[in-house]
Amino acid sequence: MATTATLKLDDKEYPLPILIGTEGEKAIDTRKLRADSGYICYDQGYGNTGSCESAITYLDGDNGVLRHRGYPIEDLAQHSDFVETTYLIIYGELPNAAKRKEFGLLLRQNAAVETQMQRIFEGFPKDAPPMAMLSSIVASMAAHYPQLAANNFEKDLANFDLAAAMMVSKIRTIGAMIYRYLRGLPYIFPKQELPFCENFLHMMFSEPYKDYVASPEIARALNLLLLLHADHEQNCSTSTVRMVASSSANLFTSISAGICALSGPLHGGANVSVMQMLQSIHDEGDDGTRFIEAAKSGGKGHRLMGFGHAVYRNFDPRAKIIGKAATEVLKKLGVNDPLLDIATKLEQAALKDDYFLSRKLYPNVDFYSGIIMRALGIPTNMFTVIFAIGRTPGWIANWREVAANPKGRIYRPRQIYVGPVKRDYVPLGQRS
Ligand code: CMC
Q: Which residue's CA lies nearest to atom 11 of ligand 1?
């Protein structure tokens, strides 16, 4: 296989090194191109740009493959749980029994949100968007734990284990507190003895004198949901985390930026849009046929939400797992949700339609995740918060890769300037 590519420009040749990943992914290294030739590479939206080398997640969008640290997502979904997968993603290996216990203990010890931090909640209106609250409260962790947020890689890496455990554990507590704050309910504090997902459900749904006890089906469904969101290569929010981290920003600040990126409807907010779409189809008495026709008009306002993906040009492997799980979970819980029927019909219709087939638009993870969350009693406005809790291990692992890379540099893309050329300043009185 070639080790160098050659670019010919104005009769001059520029050798460009070729990089090969461990799964055979090929890249042309253009880092020196501008210095040598004056040209930059143009790739709006970075769709064909490798911004980093990473050992966390392998994704082959053409063949619907997703692996974390080498382990197929299908195997992790079947055999692992969220906490174990979190450890794997952050530390690179599945934990042995002692390490799993130690990690679980660290998460339990760092679940609570201190009184001073609780006061931040009170500053938000009662109809605040949960993701706006989440990003602000996570950003405030840098102020509450300055010893873990030095904005100095060497110091922050020395405290990484504690900061990472705090991040994973507290974002879940903060999520449950946001839910309760927006409903005017008193906070329920974490219980040391409960496993991760059961503890989250306890903090969400317990009443002052009546503990909510999650059934094994519900706990398993939440574990699966979080696990399937745990990392997804260089998506919009993860790239944001890496970009912020590259300026030597601490873990909490970088992750807060990732949460902001996740809130948009084309990224993490898509699960909310899917439910709104299914609900409006249901309310209008459509079986999906009219909506599919409108979605084919090409307008961004009419997209079939939960369909299509920036990198998968085949089935999103997470969607296969979650679609099957949605049917099973609803059956086990005895829930009959008309929105699941609409989703199934939409999927079947779209998968036969040339518009979707020719553009390689298949269901993504968000198409069915909302239906599971609804069955668990999680309201729609909390869906993206759940996605954020699930994505936290991926953000942490990516932050760490940036922080630990001795050859790293600040992320600073270039642009093609298309604005006005140099012109003379016009004084205020002379402007038209
Ligand atoms: N419904 C109808 N048409 C669509 C859709 C859709 N959901 N997605 C893409 N298209 C069409 C688009 O109009 C375009 O058609 P044409 O070639 O005729 O102009 C073609 O497909 C290619 O679209 P694109 O915008 O170039 O695709 P993209 O790869 O840039 O966008 C996407 C990917 C995920 C933003 C887009 O598919 C979309 O908006 N999907 C709905 C939102 C959604 O479900 N997002 C969640 C993504 S998964 C969660 C995550 O990992 O963040």
A: 298
